[in-house]
Amino acid sequence: MRVFTYSEVRKRLAEVLDLAKEEEVIIRRRNGETFSLTQVEKKTSPLDIEGFEADVTTDDLIAAVRESRER
I need a labelling partner for 4 at 20 to 30 A (CA). Which of 21, 39, 42, 71 fits? Predict the structure, then answer.
């Protein structure tokens, strides 16, 4: 954990953000308030899956849908 003043962060923002990828960064204001800076992990949907190749034509799909509706 590294501690920076507000003024330091303003001067070195890119460097501080890169550091926040690795560890927690604390930013301290002149009045004593402190803030924690960490990287937010990208959340993915459980429905977000990779596609796949299939030998299915549009006609095959339409035929399958029609057949399922006839039942």
Answer: 42
Global pTM reads: 0.57
Beta bridge partners of 62: none
Separation between Cα atoms, residue 39 and residue 21, nearest integer Å: 5
Mean model confidence pLDDT for the chain: 93
Q: Rg (Cα) of the chain, in Å, rounded?
A: 26
Answer yes or no: are the C-beta atoms of 25 and 12 closer than 8 Å.
Answer: no
| CA distance linking residue 42 with residue 64, whole number of Å | 37
Quick check: 27 pLDDT over 80?
Answer: yes
Task: Confirm whether 56 is domain-assigned.
Answer: no
Whether residue 44 lies inside any domain: the answer is: no
Q: How many domains does the chain have?
A: 1
